[in-house]
Amino acid sequence: MSPSFLDCLGWDEQFAAHTREGFEFGRISIEYQHIYGIMTESGELLAEVTGTLRHEARGPLDYPAVGDWVHFRMHPGGDR
User: Fold this and answer.
1) DSSP element (H, E) containing 53
2) Cα torsion angle, 39, 37, 77, 23, sign
3) Which residues lie below 8 Å from residue 72, measured CB to CB, with a gap of 6+?
4) What confidence tens digit (pLDDT) does each residue in 10-40 have?
5) CA angle at residue 54 from 24 to 43, to 5 degrees?
């Protein structure tokens, strides 16, 4: 069986334990003013953190960084 795109990015099955229903996984490839590029099985997407995270973050270290694995949910009709 050939590796998936996420496998090529360093995916480890231990991450699957953190899968939540309705979410997908990706890896942060770029960050600019809290807009993120996420590499996923279906290509690169743009994303923003949730309002809850923005509200609860105490500083920059609470935000995702390039190289982090994140789970995300696509919103219908949205571009992020």
Assistant:
1) helix 51-56
2) positive
3) 23, 24, 25, 26, 38, 45, 47
4) 676 766 666 667 778 889 999 998 899 999 8
5) 30
